[in-house]
Amino acid sequence: MPRTLTVTAGLALAGLFAWGQSTVSLYFTVEDGDKLIGGLQSENFRLYEDGQPVSFRLVEPESPALVTLLAEYSQSSLYYLSDIGTALDAFVDAAPEGHWYSLATFSQELQIHVDFTRQKGEIRAAFGALGQPFWGEVNTYDAVVDVLDKLEWLSGRKVLILIGSGLNTLSRHTLTEVQRKVEGADVVIFGIGAGSLLRGQYDAYLSDSARMELRQAEAFMNMLARKTGGQSFFPRFETAYRDVMRTVVLMLEQQYRIVYESRFGRDGKFHRIRLEAFQTTEGKRRNFSVRVREGWRRQ
Questions:
Q1: pTM attached to this predicted model
Q2: Is residue 194 part of a domain?
Q3: Which residues contact 194 (CB under 8 A, 6 or more apart)?
Q4: Which ranges constitute the DSSP H helices of 129-232?
Q5: What residues have CB less than 8 Å from 23, skipping those under 6 apart?
Q6: 138 lies in the same domain as 269
Q7: What residues make up the domain containing 267?
Q8: pLDDT band at 15 (very low <50, low <70, confident <90, very high)
C-alpha cells in the first residue's frame, strides 16, 4: 500500500505556483445567490492584499486537477459509515474523466489506498474493499495536516474533499496548528459532513458537552472551507449526498484562476485577501459574492 501521494514527474513540476516565489495562483468561484456565475473577464474583478490593490492576470485553471478524497473510517464512524460510502459513490459518479484522483482514510493514522490515478473507478473499488475498522480514534486534525504535507510537494490545482464528522479525539496537532497549516496551503478544501441525520435524531438525548463537541466539529469543517475558498455541506438525508457532490463538481468546473505577484515573502504572517466581482451595465454596478480563501500565511 503506497504511503505517499505522488503523480507523474511532468505534472509535479508543472504549473505557475511556486511556494518559494512571489507568484501566487488564486482559485475561486463567483456566485449570485445559489447560482454560479461564469464568463467574467479581468475587468470584472478587483483584488486587494492587506487592503492594497494588486495587479493580476485572469488565466485558465490548471488542468488536470489533483483531487484527494479524505474519508473518516474508524469504529466510531460505523454509526454513519453509510453516509461516507454514499458520499464517495456520489462523487465518483459525478466526477469528470481526465483529472487525477486519490483516496485516503483515517482513524488513528492516515492511510493512502489509491495514489493519484485517472481511473476514478479505483476509488470506489478501494473503499469497497476496506475491512472492518480496527481503531476507534478519529484523529481528524492529524489527517488534514498529513495530507496537506504530502500535497505541498505537488504543483498545479489541488483540491481536498474531507468526508467525515469533523470530530477529533487524540490528534497530536492542535486546532491552531491545523488552521495555520491550512492558511499556508495552496489547496481548496470542501467539507462533507457525515452523520447529520443521526445527530438530528438523537439531539434531544445529548448532553450539553456532546452538543458543544458536535458544534465544534461543524465549525472545524466550516473553517477549512472558509480559509481555502471551498465550501462545507451537512446533508440531513443520505439521498442528499448526490446533489452535494454534483454541486462540488460543478464548482470545480466553474472555478476562476487569478495569478498575481505578492508583495510579501516568507514572513510567517497572515496576509488577507479581498476579491471583488461585479458587472457594470448602463453605469450601474452589480456585485457578486466571491468564494475565495481568506488569505495566505507564508512560512
A1: 0.90
A2: yes
A3: 72, 77, 80, 83, 84, 87, 163, 164, 165
A4: 140-151, 175-183, 196-202, 208-228
A5: 16, 17, 259, 260, 261, 262
A6: no
A7: 23-61+257-297
A8: very low
